[in-house]
Every structure is written in structure tokens, then in C-alpha cells.
Amino acid sequence: MAPEKRAHILRAARELGYRPNVMARAVATRRSNVVGLILFNETNRHHPGVLLALSQAFSLIGVRVMLFLLEDVDEIGAVIDHILSYQLDGVIAAAPIPQEDLDHLAAAQVPLLFYNRPGEDGVASVSCDHYASGVLIARHVLASGARRIALIRSYAEAFVGNERMRGVEEELARNGANVVAEFRGDFDYDRGVAAVLDWAARGIDDYEAIIAANDMMAIGAKDALVHKLGKRVPQDVAVAGFDGVEASRWLSHSIASVDQPIEHMAKAAVDMMALRIENQHLPAERRLFPGRLQHGSSVAD
Amino acid sequence: MAPEKRAHILRAARELGYRPNVMARAVATRRSNVVGLILFNETNRHHPGVLLALSQAFSLIGVRVMLFLLEDVDEIGAVIDHILSYQLDGVIAAAPIPQEDLDHLAAAQVPLLFYNRPGEDGVASVSCDHYASGVLIARHVLASGARRIALIRSYAEAFVGNERMRGVEEELARNGANVVAEFRGDFDYDRGVAAVLDWAARGIDDYEAIIAANDMMAIGAKDALVHKLGKRVPQDVAVAGFDGVEASRWLSHSIASVDQPIEHMAKAAVDMMALRIENQHLPAERRLFPGRLQHGSSVAD
DNA sequence: CTGAAAGCGCTTACAG
DNA sequence: CTGAAAGCGCTTACAG
Hints:
The structure is a homodimer of 301-residue chains. In chain A, 44% of the residues lie in helices and 21% in strands. Chain A is an alpha/beta fold and 301 residues long. A six-stranded parallel β-sheet of chain A has the order 2-1-3-4-5-13, with helices on both faces. In chain A, strands 7-6-8-9 form a four-stranded parallel β-sheet, with helices on both faces. In chain A, strand 10 (249-250) and strand 11 form a beta hairpin. Chain A is elongated, with a radius of gyration of 23 Å. The interface between A and B is large, with 49 and 49 residues. The structure holds a DNA duplex (16 and 16 nucleotides).
């Protein structure tokens, strides 16, 4: 049938309520036009923009997103099983995938792309350069004059948090600054508060700046400093975080931070995925995007 | 084949990398085990818990969620088209659906459930009782002694915001309190700030309390009061909002608010949807959940 | 260009 | 209980 004739008929049929069955098309063509997105719930809470940017960018090329929201790492196996069963065209994972499941995906020829997890070997990825962001914020804090630094880390398995803190620590060391206190958090506000209270309880009060693995903990720390210890920020203690979340730009919480270029990253992820769906054998390229320093009154300029 | 034998074989096959093709099953059984979720991006930003609660509750009954994230109302038609094409088992809409599209869904026998939109006629829904929540917060503010009230509304089409404010206004009127200032916001922090600055610019400064259509605007208003006008909250002005967002419980922002019982609502939505997928002809029941008052230092107890 | 057949990977009656 | 056939709604190669 001539293309325009076909289009005309489809349009007419559509008026009458007919829609071609995409599922049937999917089994016929072995192409579902759906990709899976594996995301920790925590990631979505702290970066709601990621889901939006990805789903919009995919939507532009006619691809839908099936969302797999994880509470815990141990759900990943089951999720991969689902993905394999749904014959999705590809998977974007903002979570670690066990080797066994990587093998399953590879065997099923499902292209995989890591988001903010550049470390995994042999798998394509798009990420923010978290190490460089750590260096950036450390330099900014050092420029304000602080030399005695307290760190609020994320938990040990958090790749992004670890990279950020590795960048921070190495830059501090290169400049002869000292880490005088440390605390392990979980990216939540409460743990930022807990860090400051913990140090206070242990008599540690000689830090000139706090660098937290993300903004939420930085804000918690700042709130504890101000509202619990009666300190001034940044005069007594400077505070810095990562992500440039909305609250870090409020009148009440101007936090120095490093922002991720989420839209560019999402665009890159969608482009890469689209290419990989067409051609399974592309090299495992890794695209790294620099973070952007966001000034804030929590660190003196 | 005997069930246990079948299970055994499937397990063995699975080891070798075989997974039954769910899409093929979907076309054969005309049941995809996927429901569509139509959500405004704004809703997800302000209530990330909704997406999580729904996707988890569905996951427990083996149903996956295909997410349709909207930036704008005018995308709904296209989204409904997609949903019809994917032969989804049902749709949960936290957005208004034009009558025409309601008809299309009905013609295709796709069960529909509104989330936080109880008003639509003839369609099942689960919602928080926003009107009652408005009454609740108004009563709380009145109890603190305030009688001259300023309101920060949402935009005119926002159902939830309108219901909240309707409850607020009627309860204020019943108690002889006056609305001395109004501002139309959009649920964002910035508009809360803008409201207070706008009133100040126009010389309006005799309000004793601000009630905003959500917490973000309430926090913005409070920040503007404190950081721009040098007022004290709640001594000079009380501030209240809705949703009980995380930031409303920070040390820096203890905001009186009314919380939605999201987990219960999600559970109810999933139950209702599951029943309606089995039986198309259930009555258009509407389930209403009461909000919960959250105290905060922004309104004196 | 057109139309009928075969095939995608499953399920579901139905005959044996 | 078992196995082969028909069917779900599409696409794709193939004969006319």
C-alpha cells in the first residue's frame, strides 16, 4: 500500500477508536520500543530531574520507559529477570549490577548503559565526573581560607559519594589541609544533623569547614550548626555539598555546591542507548561530564 | 503437564538463560500486567513518594508500571493514544483527562482510576480529602489566635490547591476571620517568596498568618518574611502549608502542615485497580482519605 | 503495487 | 494427563 494511503487509512481508523497493538508489533519485530530504567528510590528522591530528563528525551524518539524503582540492592536480580522477560530493548542502570546479571543481559543481547557508574568494566556509561567535582568544591572551600576540614561521607558502597570524597580528600591533601573529623551518613538530612551533634558530643569543634557528600547532609549540618550549636555559617564554619538541589538556593540555605548537568547527561544517555539498540557491537564508551560549581553564602567568596 | 513438573522445567530452562516472553503472553492473553501511570512532573517533584508507593504496591501483585510524566496538560491526548496502543491493563491518572479521551478509554474497556481527583463524574478515584485538610489547617491557625489571614493559592486549574483553599476559606468565614491578602502561586518556593514581597510592595502588612496551598510556597513565604522583611515566625506572622514535605520538618523550617496518607492511598489505588482489571463493571466508587495535621513551630500551639 | 501466507512466542481450548 | 492445532494482532518476505 502507498505510504500516504496507509497513513490516511490509519488516521480514519483511529477516529473510530482503532489503535495498532504495540505489543503484537513488539513480538513480531522483536523490538518493544521500551527501555528499562533501574533507579534507586533514593536517587529519585534526591534527583527527581533524572527520571524526568530521561523519560522526556526518550519520548522524543518514540521510546517509552519502564521504571524499576529499587529500595534495596538485593532487588536487582529480580528486576533483571523482569527486564529479560519483557524483552526490553535496552537497560539504563543507575545501580550496580552483579556480574551474573551482566552475563544474562549480554547473553540476551540487551544493551546496557550505566548512569553515574563509570567504573564498571566493559559497559558503556554516562556520568558526571564526581571525582573532579570533589576537587572543585575542595578548591572552593580552600580558597575561602579554611584548612581544618570535617567530612560527612556517604555509606561505604555509594559509588557517587565515594568518588566525590576521594576528589575532596586528594585535593585537600595536595594543599596541606587536614581532615579533622569524619562521619558516615546516608545522603539524608538527618545524618547531616547527626554528624554535627556527634562531633560536638565528642568535643570536636576545631573544624573551619564541613564538606558533605551531598546537599541534603550539608543542609542538615548547617541547620545543626546554626540551630543546635549557635554557630554562624560561614563566619564560624563554612559548609559545602553536592548536587545544587533546589533547597540549596533558598534564602534560608544558600549552599555552595557542585551541580550535575543532568539534561546533557540524559541527552547523552538516550543518544548512546539509541545507537546501541541499532548496533549491538559498539565499544563500551564512557562519557564523562564535568560538574558546575554553584556559589552560595555558606562558603565565603 | 503437572504443575510441579512444569515449574521444574521452567527453573531448569531459566538457568540456561531462557525467560518466557511476557510480550507474547500479553498478546495471547490480552493481558499485559502493566498499568499506565499519568503524573505531572510537578507532582513527582513535590511528592516523590507517590510514584514509589504505587510502583511498590503494584510490584507486590506482579504488575509493572509504565510511567507517563507530563510537563503540560496538552500532552494528555498523546499519552492516552500511547496507552491505548500498548493495551495496558489499566490507567491511574493524577491529571485531568478530557472527556473525549475518557470515551476512548471506556470504548477500549481500559479501567481508569483517578488519583487525587475525586471530582470527575463516573470514574473511580482514591484521593485525600483536601477540602477537609483545608478546614483542619484553618482551624489550627485560628486556634493560635490569628484572625487576619493572607492566602497563597495555586493556579486556577489546580484541583488539589483549589480544594484545600476552599476548605480554608469556608472555615475562616465560619469563624469570622478575614482574608486580607491573596496571591496566586504555582506550588513552587519562588512563588511563596514572591507573594510576601508583592504584599510588602503594596503596603499590605497587617496579616497575622499566611496559609499557602502547599509547603514549598509556605517555606518560601516564611523565608521571605524572615530574611527579607525581618519578621519573626510565628510571633509576628504564623505560616502553614500542606503536604508535610521533608523540608517542613527541618530544624530550620518547622512548618505546620497537613500530611497525606500516601501509603494507604497507594494501597487503596492498587487494590481498586486490581479489582477493576478483573471486573470491568464495578461501580465508580470514590475513596477519600483524611489528611493528618502536622504541628510545627511556624504556628504557635 | 497487492494480497495471501508464514512467522513472532506465547496460551487456550480440544481431540486423543 | 498429553500433544497438536488454532489463535492473539501484528510484520515481513514472497508469489502473483
